């Protein structure tokens, strides 16, 4: 009787989905593409810049939605990153509950945002806390990792085949449902697990793991990691020495996550990624001082070969040291990996959105941006809440109306962006026969002395040889003629107008037209022309979202 009613319920559900499906125009499936060494996330078949924000961990419940949407609106995001919970999705073995994801899809559409859903399943910050209760109650079947003494630890074993099978099946069911329920492609990407790996222990010491640890390293790992060892088929210890445990655990965890990802991708090929709790990029401590087994910078190559169904390995950046932040961005911007920052935090890190854009990031997303936490970073008082969000909101208000253009120009290699670094009052962005020169903290006598805090940031994109889009905050931008042919240093003039001695001839920049405008539906709408005081000393950007289209000439 039970089976029959479940069968009819499933039938009714399938027909409802099919009817809805028939009514809604099916859009192209989002995908990650690469061209000329650059990546783009395509949504509706065009490059898309994800202006994201992630909610707190326990926010994906209908009662919390009133605390999510106002914050997202204030931030001007186009994408919300939000978890889905295995414990909610599969309350009993093999029985899937689609109510949460369906409610979420409906709400997101009403609020006109895309979603990145985070599959909180076998791993969440290194533990198995999101496994359904029926799994937690059967630890002999759904295995924890064990330490050197055979004691269970608070982290799942990557060698638990029952857990892997359950996760694979649940994720495939989730993706199958998404495919049917989301022809609009509200969901544009899925994170598989959350910061997988293990805190406090380097690897699994279960018999299955021990056996593999003593066996030869798979050849594809050896070649990906460019292992040079005495033996032609070294084991993990021989191949990796002090990093053997971490490398082995990375291989074990990545294999597992890769199989979960592949199961989902086989039914619905949305872009998939895994996120990393980082190790210090400048002074990496010894194994054990960071989460072991996740896609940290030292094992990215292992993750790439072990989990090819993942399109992206992405850093969660909470570094407060600017040099370290920059280094992380550089480490994850690789020829085999698009740069995507799925989590970040720290009020001082707001400007790194621009640095990330300069490294062709496809998306950026500060963490914990809803109003569910009535303490600390997002206080109960609405004014204070907004104060916390405002610096992030500034970025998105500026770039939001032209995100599609920015994404396209970046994909075409025509965009450069940079954020002020402490102690560096100027930056130069080369564009062929022009250098865009950015100055921070410019004094009344036109000296760049840097801002009191490094708040300057700028984005310059080349539309034509002599035409640029320029926007940013707390900086001055000017264009200097450059010796594009020889790429050598040119002699700079000293006058008010940027000039350069090129091939024995003085070349002077002149502004033919500096238009302030706003982007609306992909079209630059003219507001006014800047001239006189607004251009005589360069183009000055303060705290307001200002977009300029600059046409240059030379005399
Ligand atoms: C990183 C994790 O990925 C998030 O889910 C969250 O736990 C933050 N750390 C810290 O709050």
Shape: globular
Give the CA-CA distance, first to last residue. 87 Å
How large is the share of residues in beta strands?
25-35%
| SS elements, strand count | 25
Mean pLDDT: 93
Written account of the structure:
Strand 22 (505-520) and strand 23 (523-529) form a beta hairpin. Mean pLDDT is 93; it is low at 1-15. The chain is built from 15 helices and 25 strands. Helix 6 packs parallel to helix 10. The protein has helices spanning 2-23, 69-75, 86-89, 99-110, 133-136, 161-181, 207-214, 219-224, 236-240, 244-267, 300-306, 322-332, 352-358, 382-399, 403-411; strands at residues 31-35, 38-43, 46-47, 50-54, 79-85, 114-124, 144-146, 152-156, 187-194, 272-277, 312-317, 340-344, 363-366, 415-419, 426-431, 434-439, 457-464, 467-473, 475-481, 491-492, 499-502, 505-520, 523-529, 539-541, 547-554. It is globular and about 80 Å long. It is 30% helix and 27% strand. The strands form five sheets. The protein has an eight-stranded parallel β-barrel with strand order 4-5-6-9-10-11-12-13, surrounded by six helices. Strands 14, 17, 18, 20, 21, 22, 23 and 25 form an eight-stranded antiparallel sheet that branches. Strands 15-16-19-24 form a four-stranded antiparallel sheet, with no helix packed on it. The protein is of the alpha/beta class. (2R,3S,4R,5S)-2-(hydroxymethyl)piperidine-3,4,5-triol (DGJ) binds next to loops.
